[in-house]
Design goal:
By secondary structure, this protein is of the alpha/beta class. It contains 11 helices and 13 strands. It folds into 2 domains: about 180 residues, D-Maltodextrin-Binding Protein, domain 2 (3-Layer(aba) Sandwich); about 120 residues, D-Maltodextrin-Binding Protein, domain 2 (3-Layer(aba) Sandwich), CATH 3.40.190. The strands form 3 sheets. Strands 8-7-6-9-5-10 form a 6-stranded mixed sheet. It has a 5-stranded mixed sheet with strand order 2-1-3-11-4, with helices on both faces. A two-stranded antiparallel sheet has the order 12-13.
Amino acid sequence: MASNQLVMACDAPELALLEEGTASFDGLEIEIQRVHPRQRHRTMAQSLAYDICEYSLVDYLHGFEQGLPFTAIPIFPHRVFRHRDIWVSKKSGVDEPKQLAGKRIGIQSWVNTAGVWQRGLLQQEYSLELTSIEWVREIQEEKHGPVWARFSRKPEGQSLDQMLATGEIAAMMLPRPPELLPDEIQGVRRLFADYVTVEQEYRARTGLFPIMHVMVIKNDLLGAHPGIGKLISHAVQAALDGFLERRRSTNGKSVLWPALSWSEQEKSLGPYPWPAGVEANRKELKALIAYAFNQGIVSRRISPEELFQFKGRPLGEIS
């Protein structure tokens, strides 16, 4: 293909070898840009600013039925358990998941990968009735959401973090910990205090390792260069594999549970829980699609294979 430089936006720690420039794209010139997820996802959706992008999987699902100017390849660079990011106010009296029923819970937005996994696990694992919750949204302009969900807006000039600390909301589910001053943080705690054990038990029970992000490529690029999907898939997965092998060989810190070593992490995850391809990730994809359907984000249970096709042909399967 032409030697014009392409731009890839990403920031997953597991793709560190891309940023170091040690990954090979078989002659392609690709500029790697590190961009914060919220900015990256919005910019890709609104202005198609990148040729290749690490993108929110739920944003991709949400836009899929309407048609998108980019298509995903089955490479999943960022995965994380989300029990850890469910926080409660100590004033709420909430000690266990079922006590969230009827409460006010702060969320970033309804169409958010971390939130879909969190709501799904609370509903499926702990029988929490999602219709009983008042969902307080951080992103004011978001219009999406099922008719059965009760929404309210976060007050101007106030953060969900502050509302959690003061007890104005009982809980908060964001893809990050609360950002509070030392005296404020004393008023909040994780719903799952021993989240490492809870997440490991969840993994053992369900076999799931929640996917957050997927790699997407502009349709114009895929149309002009039919082989580029597989080439990018191989290069990105090789960078991911190389990063994981480096951690494994040095028995470095776990990327999921930093208090543990890599070998301790493998006791729960196994030696290779970041696989490529639809089949190897079918369980996670089917679970997330089911949650997205139940939460009104997609109108049907899309088959995993559909998500990774361009003009009827599968993209990026690594053989």
